[in-house]
Amino acid sequence: MERLVTSNLKLGIIAGGQLGKMLIQEASKWDIITYVLDNDQNCPAGSIASYFVKGDNLDFESVYQFGKMVDVLTFEMENINIEALKKLKTEGCKIVPDPEILELIQDKGLQKEFYKKSGIPTSPFKIYESEKAILNGIEKGEINFPFVQKLRRGGYDGRGVAVINDVSNLNKILPGESVVEEKVEIVKEISAIVARNKNGEIKCYPIVEMLFDPRANLVDKLICPSSITAEQSEKAVNFASEIIELLNMEGLLAVELFIDSKGDVIVNEVAPRPHNSGHHTIESIITSQFEQHLRAILNLPLGSTKIKLPSVMINILGAEGYEGAVIYEGLTESMAIDGVKIHLYGKQITKPYRKMGHITILSSTLECALKKAEKVKQLIRVKSWKENS
Ligand SMILES: Nc1ncnc2c1ncn2[C@@H]1O[C@H](COP(=O)(O)OP(=O)(O)OP(=O)(O)O)[C@@H](O)[C@H]1O
Ligand SMILES: [Mg+2]
Fold it and tell me: If you placed Cys at 84, which of 63, 108, 230, 255 could pair as Cys (CB 3.0 to 4.6 Å)?
């Protein structure tokens, strides 16, 4: 019989950011022994992993040796040395999700080709090998304004993405192999998180909607349930389920989608791991995304994804103008508001816009949760002892 959860199961997690930390918090409930690989011993997961292993995610030897220490290997980020994972797999190491899936997702070009081949709606695109090739493409009339350029590899949190509206933006084009996509007239950005285990059981979470700060054009709040129509929601859930099934994937898959000006639902990209848009699940859904990821990778029955309460999630970001040892302001005042749940990741250094933590606000109605979230946003400030000049 396959050994699943036992007090001797060694779970390896590649990278020790906040996602790794929250995954370990769930794993410890089942007495799983956790190993974390990260370059920085002070990373969020470093202090709570059973074992911390210092090493680089992109270094073959570090990843390979780490894989040899554990029974099951998973990851909390995509930027990993794939050759090491493939070698470990051929030597019998259990890696979930599968390295071949990670390899496809690591490359935005292969990912887009997969959607096209599978008939999953996504914005039309072309692949270019360099900045020069893109400029040539514009000259030849192959590429029309406005468009979005994405580096095929290594981008995250919007880095590696350039929105080119007209010729005046051409200086923003990034060097490197890229996907060039038609710019979608986005009305809403949503996310569908889906899980699948080896038995083929699939469960999708209710759709989350991102609300943007109109001034900074940054994601400001994430709400669940979303305000999209039942039909749009069903489409998003079906696309997410179809993708995870087509990939034959075990684990958690976060699917980012757009609703365009025609009301159509289209897929942007996926991440094969717990995701920022699923943090609310810790308190607002019966099974958190972290527990679900563990259930999925260990082939346990998937947990209920039913909503307990409507929620708003806000990221706690480093304030502009501050860099250095972190100080939080407004935590106590925020906690005094009913339904406010604070998560600090334990990052010692703040930088402008760095994700330092998140707050989930629960209430019996979304409207009330939104009002409370607005209050919390006014109260919380992430500063450092020294202000940057
Ligand atoms: N084709 C598009 N049309 C219009 N806007 C787009 C398009 N593709 C991406 N964007 C915008 O750029 C943002 C970042 O793009 P994307 O999610 O592909 O990159 P990323 O670096 O992986 O970002 P993140 O890590 O934040 O998810 C999207 O959330 C969306 O706002
Ligand atoms: Mg994205």
Answer: 63
Question: Cα(159) to centroid of ligand 2, in Å?
Answer: 10
CA distances from 382 to 211, 212, 305 (A): 21, 20, 32
pLDDT value, residue 157:
79
Q: How far apart are the first and last CA of the chain?
A: 62
Taking CA atoms only, the protein residue closest to ligand 1 atom 15 is 158
For residue 1, the model assigns a pLDDT of 45
Assess contact for 274 and 22: CB atoms under 8 A.
Answer: yes
Alpha carbon nearest to ligand 1 atom 16, residue: 158
pLDDT band for position 2 (50/70/90)? low
Cα 157 to ligand 2 centre (Å): 7
Go through the domains of the chain in sequence order and give each one's CATH number.
Answer: 10-95 (3.40.50.20), 124-182 (3.30.1490.20), 186-384 (3.30.470.20)
Residue 213's pLDDT band (cuts 50, 70, 90): confident
Enumerate residues lining ligand 1, CB below 6 A. 123, 148, 150, 155-158, 160-161, 181, 183-184, 186, 189, 256, 268-269
Distance CA 201, CA 236 (A): 18
* Pocket mutation for ligand 1, best pick of 78, 184, 268, 273 (most atoms within 8 Å of C-beta): 268
Per-residue pLDDT tens over the stretch 192-206: 999 999 999 999 999
Phi, psi of 355 (to 5 degrees): -75, 105
Cα-Cα-Cα-Cα torsion 116, 120, 124, 126, nearest 10 degrees, comes to -30
Tell me what the pLDDT averaged over the chain comes to.
96
